[in-house]
Amino acid sequence: MTAPTPVTRYQQRVDRVQKIVQVHTKLDDTKARALATDMVHVLDTMPESVR
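Below the sequence we write its predicted structure tokens.
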């Protein structure tokens, strides 16, 4: 039996955003995941003063 793969906080944030995107759009899993990844990346790289 293999040990479960740990989920990072980044992956948790992307999952959360993906779920929100899918609730509010008709995007499939792949496109919603891509959009969620882009959104999390932008938020992570945005200066704190702008957030």
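The chain has one domain: 9-44.
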